[in-house]
Structure formats: structure tokens, C-alpha cells
Amino acid sequence: MPKSFAIIYVLGGLIAAAIIAMCVFFIVKSVKRAKVIGMDSKKIKETIKNSAIFSIVPSIPIVIGVGIMMQYLGLAIPWIRLTVIGALQYELIAMDQAQTALNEMGGAYTTETMVATAVVIMTLSIMSGPIFNAIFYKKYQGKLADLQEKNSRLMNTITGALLGGLLAGMLSAILVGGAFTVGNPPEPDASGVITYGEVTLITLAASVVIMALCGVILKVFKQKWIESYALPITILGSLAIAYACVPLFA
Amino acid sequence: MRKFLKEKTAEQAIQTREQYNLQMHTLGRVFTWLAVGLILLVPIFYCISAKTLPSGMAIVKSLPFLLGYVAIGLIEAFSYAPLLGTSGQYMSFITGNISNLKLPCAINSQNIAKVEKGSEEQEIVTSISIAVSTIVTTVIILIGLIPLIIFQQQIVDLLNPISPYVIPAIFGGLTIVLIAQYYKIAAIPFIACIAICAIGNAIGFGSTLNQSTMVIVGMVISGISTTILYKKNKI
Questions:
Q1: Whole-prediction pTM value?
Q2: Nearest CA among B79, B174, B75, B87 for reference residue B130
Q3: CB-based contact, B204 to chain A, within 8 Å
Q4: Which of A139, B83, B92, B111 ranks highest by number of CB atoms within 10 Å?
């Protein structure tokens, strides 16, 4: 495993602290604003609780991502990369790109040169989103707000279209990607994992069924408490089923 | 008189919302530049500490890859903006994991809180939701570092096999929650995306048409089809 330098850990600590400070600032501002507009404080408390519970399970693969990347980049860099904008699949591709480019050039290179090249490529490739926000987003958001004020029906249609598109794109990729790899698993990905189509489809179906059951418990049996826990229960339940199914198809 | 006062109060509320929004932009910009600065320091400090330089030639060779990612970043910033709200947009693009964590988390909170679309309550719930989600993830990664140092291989071996199934686990349930609201809008892009994915997989481009790519494709198709339906007054 490549060496991680103390200064990089310090930098990682600063970044994590800055991110937590930013979030606390936004929470405080939002809560104050909620009071000004007379929003029910129960809704705020529920939002905080639900978001915290929801985020636990999807955060675990990010920790695993650090574990996968650390064998190539040391511990400190993957920790920083996955705490900020990076996502595992992007980072692995960026790292692979650096390695491929170095290999194509021939000649020997040190692990430090590979890590430095990979980190530069990773850093440059993810900067466009935040820089767009810092320079142009205020103006762009102003136009969106104008539209909301002048024609709220159109604005709601646009947000609906984006959300509908997100669902359509994601579901189609899961369904078709899963169906095409049933009985014919693809090569392991950059992290060494094989995604089995059967398990993908079973997990999706299990998620649908568990959420539907939660809906029945909520509507038919009038168990209001389940509303806050329905999605975390669904995610955990379907992942447990996926965990049980992977050995069957491996 | 009462009507006048009502209008005046409404006007003040709009102004206050604008002021609040401006504050969010200022805060968001400050934190974005701070994060960009700190992120840029990582390769610089690594090179100084390791007494090495990145390979300039390898970076030049990677330019097409870099430009592709720059374009994806811009498209994402542009298309996620109406869904994430002002502060949510700034936070999400500093911390990432938008489609697999931040956005589903915000949608879940909006549904439970039953906030009206486009309302200030929706903006507040989204903002709090993304902020809390970010704190939880940052803390979990931080806590996860300790067992990772000791049991790296065992943890990876144990949990990595189910990593690809987290997104189906989230989106199956989320679809059930949202289908009643969005089936009219999502039907056409869904059919089109299924067709694109099926053709792509059949001719060997399956790995290119992954979840990240298809989200962008779905949003573009949905934008076009919904505009047509809107103009025809069908939605």
C-alpha cells in the first residue's frame, strides 16, 4: 500500500471539518428561516431524523470504496476523495486512466509518480460542477426563481420532468443491465466485483415488494410510524436478500 | 384595506425569501471556493511530501477523458439544480454522491413532510435533508477508517459483493413512492430509455449505458417529451 503522508491527513481533517461546518451553517440558517415562515418544528425534527436514518446504509459502500482504493493510493487520499465530490466508480476510472497513460508511455515510473498523476487527473476532472456553481449558479437559479414566480405550473412541470427522467434512466439501466447479464455475468469491475443480473433484478423486485408492504402497513393498518422508516427498512431488507442471493449465482 | 395589507405582507414575504436566497448563495459560494481551494491543495501537498511530480505527458494523454468528465460535471450541475434547491445544490456539488444518496434522501424527506412543490418549505426540507445526509456520510467515513486500517481486506471481502446492489435497493422502493405522482411524465422517457439500453446492450455498448449515463439520457428525453405534453395540455 502506498505511503500516506501526515500532511495529507491534516488536509483531510480540514476538508472534513469545512464540510461539517458548511452543513451546520446551512442547517442553522434553514431552521431559522423555517421559524420565520411559521413552519411546523415537528417537520424539521422529522426531516433531521429521517435524513440521518436514511443516509446510514448508502454510506457504507462509500467506506468500502475507501478500502478498495487504499491498496492503490494509500489511506489518506481515498478518504479525502470520497469525502468530497468523488464517487468510487469515477475515481477508479480516473486512477485507471492515469495508470494506462503511464504504461502507454513505456519506461519505468515510481508508485509516487502514479499516485501524483492519478490525484491530479481525479482533481481536475471533478472541478467543473463546483466551479459552475460558484460562478454561474446564482444567475441560473435567479432565472429558475423568475420562472417559478411567473409560471409555477411550467416550473413544476420542469422539475417533474427532471425527476421523472432520473427515475426512468436509473430504472431502465438497472432493468436492462440486469436482464442482459442474467446467466452471463460481466467481467469483474475495477473494484474486482462481479454484478450478477439475477441478483440485481431480485434486489429491485425485493425493494418494490418491501416498500409496497410498508405502504399496506401504513394505509391499511394505520401504522403512521412506519412512514419515516419505510425507505431505510426497504433498503436494508432488499440488501439482506441480495447478500443471501450472491453466493447462489457466484 | 385588508386586501392591501395582505398584498403588502405577501410582498414582504417575497422580499425576505429573496434576501434569504441571496444569503444562501453567498454562503454557498464561500464554501464552494473554500472546498475547491482545499481540494486543489491535495495533489500539491502530495507532490511536495513525496518529492515527486505528476507525469505531464500522462495528463496530456488523459485530456479527452478529462474533457468528458468536465462536460458531465456541467450537465449534472445544470440539470440537478431545479431538484436540489439553492443550498442543496452547493452542498451536493462539494460532497458528491448525488443520484445515489443526496437526491433520494431529499425526495424521501419531502414526501414524508408532504411539502408543496416549489414552496419555501420544500427548499428548507431539501436543504436540511442534504446537510444532515452529508454530515452522516462524512462521520461514517471517518469512523470507518479505524476498522479499515485494521481489517481492510476482511471488510472489503465481506461487504464489497453487495455494493452494486445498493442503487436497485434504493430505487425500487423510491419508484413505488413516486410512481403515483410521476407516471404520466416518466412513461415516455422510461420506454425510450428501455429501448436505448436494450439496443445498446445488444450491440455491445452495455457498459457505456450505465446508471450515470442513463440518468442524463433520461432527463434529456423527459425534458423533450414533457415539453410536448405540456404544450398540448396533456399534463
A1: 0.84
A2: B87
A3: no
A4: B92
